[in-house]
Amino acid sequence: MIWTVTFNPSRDMTFVLDGRLEPGTIDVATSVYARSGGKGNNVARVVRALGDSVGAVGFYGGAIGDLVCRGLEEQGIVVLGEPVNGETRTCLTMVGRGGAEITEIREKGPPVRPPAADRLLRRLLERVTPGDWVTLSGSLPPELPPSVWADWVRALNPRTRGVFVDTSGDNLRAANSANPLAMVPNRDEWNASGLSVTGSVIVTEGAEGATWYPKPGVVRRLRPPRVAVNNTVGAGDAFLGGMVHGLNRGEGWEQALVWAVAVAAASVTSPGVADVDPVVARSLISQVVLE
Ligand SMILES: Nc1ncnc2c1ncn2[C@@H]1O[C@H](COP(=O)(O)OP(=O)(O)OP(=O)(O)O)[C@@H](O)[C@H]1O
Ligand SMILES: [Mg+2]
């Protein structure tokens, strides 16, 4: 089982426009996609599309929270949700000029008090088994301190096959202090963190692919296939989903990372956020280069 944790879930709405987004004008979307989102839920949807059993863990409130949970369950994802006051947030992505211009507007999300985080962690610890993997992704809702990342990594890493972290800033530094099995930030997030490689780090670099630091002093490059870009939002989540799916089916790191690059490229070709067609991903795998 793969558990994907989303501290700050959202309902993600993607509006695709014909031309470019013009502030101050009225436009009609050519297509609209609604997804159960937040970084961890994107990972959950990708892993599920690839065929694994997934548990999505997060805080939910109000009617939007119900919608997000129902959307996950409809895809066969098990939801482990802790109720919170307020309404789960909505995040808006506007895709203009055939994917060349992407505008995102995000809500902060309802506040979550630290005791609610402790309760959810205890509930997850009751459910995980030593054969499971855990991903922790995204931002924190208001009122949760970055130390939550260290607490969750420290509690879950020894009780599972491993915890993976995809976050930024103080959250990334806090998670790093607790030695997760690997971290998967993007290039900007990694550079801004000021961290140096101590454990395994995979830095994703958009159309450039990714750089893998398996341990201090070793650097490997992953070159992606050339694909038609429709929406790059959620490519990092697709990457993490592909990676943990590969590891879960028994692949070594090299093979799992090549697969992750193919899955992320498949996600980029689709207009929805982190929508992966496994057939497309498989067709791209031979074009991925690991140096
Ligand atoms: N244009 C592209 N062509 C091929 N592969 C891409 C492209 N853009 C991204 N990818 C793949 O997706 C991976 C993750 O992309 P990126 O580094 O942009 O993630 P990110 O910034 O974390 O995205 P998000 O947080 O929105 O999920 C890259 O390592 C790469 O393998
Ligand atoms: Mg990311």
| Full CATH superfamily name | Ribokinase
Mean pLDDT: 95
- Can you tell me the CATH architecture? 3-Layer(aba) Sandwich
**The CATH C-level class name:** Alpha Beta
Q: Strands across the major sheet, in which order? A: 5-4-1-8-9-10-11-12-13-14
Shape: globular
Unique ligands: adenosine-5'-triphosphate, magnesium ion
What does this structure look like?
The chain has 291 residues and is α/β, with parallel strands linked by helices. It has a single domain (2-290), classed as UDP-N-acetylmuramoyl-L-alanine:D-glutamate ligase. The strands form 2 sheets. The protein has a 10-stranded mixed β-sheet, sandwiched between helices. It has a 4-stranded mixed β-sheet with strand order 3-2-6-7. Helix 3 runs parallel beside helix 4 (147-156), helix 4 packs parallel to helix 5 (169-176) and helix 8 (253-269) packs across helix 9 (278-284). Strand 9, helix 5 (169-176) and strand 10 form a beta-alpha-beta unit. It is built from 9 helices and 14 strands.
